[in-house]
Write a structure and sequence with these properties.
- α1 (10-19) packs parallel to α3.
- The protein has helices at 10-19, 24-43, 50-93, 97-101, 109-123; strands at residues 126-134, 142-143, 147-148, 150-159, 162-177, 180-192, 200-202.
- It is built from five helices and seven strands.
- It is of the alpha+beta class.
- β6 and β7 form a beta hairpin.
- It is elongated and about 85 Å long.
- The chain has a five-stranded antiparallel β-sheet, with helices on one face. A two-stranded antiparallel sheet has the order 2-3.
- The protein folds into two domains: 10-69, no CATH class; 94-202, Nuclear Transport Factor 2, Chain: A (Roll), CATH 3.10.450.
């Protein structure tokens, strides 16, 4: 049994400090340094810190797993929504209008039916689409200092009868409610830009102020 008079292994100390860090790079380092501490303690019998090293390995591994899971969820459900939401909404809306309006904060089935019918009449079926640029929002308009609370996102859509159509959709990550923010992760509106035949907008009363 190690005596408390024996010096604490420096690797064990550094490992526990890193393992409780708020950055995943530190928590990963904490777990790895914990392993390094166990090896060093075994090689240097005059030092202690086995329990501390194991604690660092456990905490570092747990927090790293939570970070990884959270980042994966965010990438799939939030970033994926930003990149592909309007495209998926139009594709799914061809078979079910309810699936289309599920992507929006303003869910008006009659207007959705009109929008999708006119969209299909003009351009045919949607073949593919991608996000092409996004508005940069700074300061307090950022959630977690990374993502905009709301942003106008642009997409390039390719239909059967139109090789390139530009659309803009307002993405709402959080909705402000008095002193709180409610996680939303939907779109407020979508606008299909068409100088020749006129823009198509859903919902019809959406307040749109974007550069085309």
């Amino acid at each position: 049994m190690k005596s408390k008079s024996e010096p604490l292994n420096p690797w064990a100390f550094v490992a526990i400090v890193c393992s409780i860090g708020m950055c995943p790079f530190f928590t990963i380092a904490g777990a790895l340094l914990g392993v390094r501490a166990l090896v060093d303690i075994k090689a240097r019998p005059g030092t202690r810190g086995v329990r501390l090293a194991w604690t660092a390995i456990f905490i570092g591994s747990l927090v790293t797993g939570l970070w990884g899971g959270g980042m994966l969820w965010w990438n799939i459900h939030v970033r994926g929504q930003m990149q592909h939401g309007p495209v998926n909404a139009i594709v799914e809306g061809n078979s079910d209008e309810l699936q289309f309006i599920a992507y929006f904060t303003n869910q008006k089935q009659t207007e959705a039916s009109t929008f999708l019918t006119e969209l299909h009449s003009r351009y045919g079926n949607l073949v593919s689409g991608k996000q092409i640029e996004s508005e940069q929002v700074e300061g307090e308009e950022l959630a977690f200092y990374m993502m905009p609370l709301q942003a106008d996102l642009k997409y390039e859509l390719h239909f059967e009868n139109a090789p390139k159509i530009i659309a803009t959709a307002k993405f709402v990550l959080f909705t402000k409610r008095k002193d709180s923010r409610q996680f939303t992760n939907k779109f407020a509106w979508i606008c299909i830009h068409d100088e020749e035949r006129g823009d198509l907008v859903y919902p019809l009363q959406a307040s749109i102020g974007v550069d085309q």
